[in-house]
Amino acid sequence: MSKIVRVAAGQGFWGDWLEAPVRQVKGGPIDYLMMDYLAEVTMSIMQKQRARDPKAGYARDFIPLMERILPDVVRKGIKVITNAGGVNPRGCAEAVVAAARKLGLEGKVRVGLVVGDDILGRLDELLAKGHELRDLDTGRPLADVRDKVLSANAYLGLAPVVDALEKGANVIVTGRVTDTGLTLGPLVHEFGWDRDAWDRIAAGTIAGHIIECGAQSSGGNLLRDWRKVKGLENPGFPIVEVAADGTFTVTKHPNTGGVVNVPSVTEQLVYEMGDPKNYITPDGVADFSSIRLRQAGRDRVAVSGITGGPRTDKLKVSIAWFYGYKAVGTLVYSWPDAYEKAKRADQVLRARLKDLGLEFETILTEYVGVDATHGKLAGPPPPDLAEVQLRIGVRAKEKAPVERFAREIAPLVLTGPPSVTGFAGGRPDVQEIVAYWPALIDRREIEPFVKTEVIDA
Prior knowledge:
- The protein is an alpha+beta fold.
- The chain contains twelve helices and 19 strands.
- The chain has helices at 19-26, 40-52, 62-76, 89-102, 123-128, 159-166, 181-191, 198-211, 262-269, 338-355, 400-407, 412-415, and strands spanning 4-11, 32-35, 79-82, 110-115, 149-154, 171-173, 239-243, 248-251, 279-281, 284-287, 292-297, 300-304, 307-309, 314-334, 362-368, 387-396, 420-421, 431-442, 451-456.
- The strands form three sheets. Strands 11-12-8-7-1-2-3-6-4-19 form a ten-stranded mixed β-sheet, sandwiched between helices.
- Helix 6 packs across helix 7 (181-191).
């Protein structure tokens, strides 16, 4: 029988269902458990945490999770690959080692540590060498906001994951390795695919893309026929069963909820797809228009036909920078005339802010239940709405006007239109705004600095 490698998704983002990895490990045979924790904004949150505590900067809930699954992972020979390391992968790796020792697993856990994606400390050097790191959306050079940068991480691909596996690691902790690279790396390691076997690299990339968001490809968040999705109390997270030729099947463990069908896989495929013929990753370019899906049985979708092309000479850099401050306040107005009351409250609040001489970059008002999700209605809303939530937010470069805005919401309860309900929690929190700055850099400036090492428990 031809070799099949099973890669299971355990987390689709930082904050995903904590039972999923446990059930993936216990529910049936898998070879690899892939856990993706990082979105663009996640890196900046972790950087702020590390600024307050040098030991922080990674997904802290990953460690108690590993304490739950490590004995089974070791017993079954499963390898765990995750980017939970965030901006402090070494701290995360050392915490895994400590957990293994606590469980009496000395000599049985080898933690692969991947570093080199974090270029925050190299920014001035890179800028001085002429790398402008221009914002891909606006074209502005990073020098315009250099003093406000909070984090800067290059997107790494499969190479360091493969390196760690070849060094014997059975738990691999990385920083900003791409979601797809966490799945593609094990496949290249297991099958010995050449790094320029572009069709197979593309196939492994798409396999990773399908499972990177966890249960979103196995029935969660499914738009088509969502009423027919059963058992979401115990959703089965996706698994890809991959063959050496790059074909694979998407499935889930038996006796779990959700569904794996062509619509569920298709909806995940188009998530963050961009140009369907040029899905660019650090490892190659995948052509999504080449994908062929076929229902191959209950909760089994066969994927084939995938083609791809060479990797580019650039790597993406995810940069987060401090932009200013914001606050969002809400009041709920009840029937009768709920919408009219909410509109009048907005007028009153805006007039008071103007009288105070406060200046904001943006004031945004939404009427939840009327126009917040689908935009303005073609005509007036029904007059018998049971309730409408007034949600108003402000943004400014300075903190003072936002703080004053936060103090002006509560007085509307007694000095505005009647029938406020559901107001609790005090004044709105004033929050820092972390803005996203995507850029490109020559991969030759990054790859020589990427290192892997193995730490034995």
